[in-house]
Design a protein that fits this description.
This protein is of the alpha/beta class. About 40% of the residues lie in helices and about 20% in strands. The chain contains twelve helices and 14 strands. The longest helix is centred in the N-terminal third of the chain and has 19 residues. It is globular, with a radius of gyration of 20 Å.
């Protein structure tokens, strides 16, 4: 039976990079027998312009019906003046909440061909392979009360609430532990338990859950130290598990260790393995339409989709091998360009991956 994939290009560079990822899926479908059906929908600013809401009911219906969702990016200056309730980012948050996508997997892997593109010394980052597991549907991004209120004095006050239940913490920790069992069996739980009671609970629940995984080596680190350690000695980490906001920040930090945020994919999964897949970079409105965006993070997100939601690991490995083969040729988009490499645009890079797929 065909697997259904919903494509949501979104805003900014989203349509450009998703277009190249769809080329890769089409190649797998036509040349390698991948049994899929692809549909496309609107989300973010593009959806607001067309339907007056960043997450139209039609898109949500398609998402519920799909086996996996491929997302480009949302947002941009064009929509910043809108009320916060209908800004493009609400479409993304709405998808995560409505689909129950609580587990965000963000790998930070340094391809050896790109060691020179990292701003850190090669000996610090060579061989880097970290997975950040970020809780995605709780924490300060969703907690209530929230909003901006006017006090009796006339002064305005902004309020956001950091809140987690034991069950929310337990389930994300178990995702991290299950993944770590297939890796190096080391998990670092990142919190701020010295000043935030909510993350003091996080630490307690993580320790309790770890008792069911005696082979896992569980450590704990305050988020400020974790940020420093990612830059100082990133290879000390294997799997990191943390809250929604901390994971958002730390994964972007880890991205730059690999040379470019344009290289990092992500998966957001529900309890049954259904997921939404997207590059972790944003809509990059400053380069939108210029044909220079790096599509590799989106293409690698497709590989994660095939591995985690579509039960097609052999196709995932094909994509990863093709990306590595393209990097071997020296082809580079501007974000990963270094002296001696060959400059490429978005479309050229996508075409090269398709050609490499057919050759591997």
């Amino acid at each position: 039976m065909s697997k259904k994939i919903l494509s949501l290009p979104g805003d900014g560079i989203g349509p450009e990079i998703v277009g190249e990822a769809v080329k890769v899926l089409t190649c797998l479908q036509d040349d390698f027998g991948l049994d899929i059906e692809m549909t496309e929908g609107l989300v973010g600013g593009a959806a607001y312009d067309a339907a007056g809401h960043p997450l139209p009911e039609a898109t949500l219906d398609l998402a519920h019906d799909a086996d996996a969702v491929l997302l480009g990016a949302v947002g941009g200056p064009k929509w910043e003046s809108l009320d916060i309730s209908v800004r493009p980012e609400k479409g993304l948050l709405g998808l995560r909440a409505e689909l129950g996508l609580f587990a965000n997997l963000r790998p930070a892997i340094l391809y050896p061909q790109l060691a020179a593109a990292s701003t850190l010394r090669a000996d610090v980052v060579s061989g880097l392979d970290i997975l950040i597991v970020r809780e995605l549907t709780g924490g300060i991004y969703f907690g209530k009360p929230r909003g901006v209120e006017t006090l009796p004095s006339g002064e305005r006050r902004g309020v956001n609430t950091l809140v987690y239940t034991e069950s929310e913490i337990d389930r994300i920790c178990r995702v991290a532990f299950d993944i770590a069992m297939k890796r190096d069996k080391r998990v670092c739980s990142v919190d701020k338990a010295n000043v935030l009671e909510c993350t003091e609970l996080w630490r307690e629940v993580a320790i309790k859950a770890a008792a069911d995984y005696p082979e896992i080596e569980l450590s704990h680190m305050y988020v400020d130290n974790a940020a420093m350690q990612l830059v100082r000695a990133p290879k000390q980490f294997d799997v990191m598990v943390t809250t929604n906001m901390f994971g958002d920040i730390l994964s972007d930090c880890a991205a730059m260790l690999t040379g470019s945020i344009g290289m990092l994919p992500s998966a957001s999964l529900d309890a049954d393995g259904k997921g939404m897949y997207e590059p972790i970079h944003g809509s990059a409105p400053d380069i939108a339409g210029k044909g220079v965006a790096n599509p590799l993070a989106t293409i690698l997100s497709v590989a994660m989709m095939l591995r985690y939601s579509l039960d097609a690991p052999a196709h995932a490995e094909r994509i990863e091998a093709a990306v590595s083969a393209v990097l071997d040729t020296g082809l580079r988009t501007p974000d990963i360009f270094s002296e001696g490499a060959e400059r490429a645009g978005t479309r050229q890079m996508g075409d090269a991956v398709v050609s490499a797929l057919r050759a591997v």
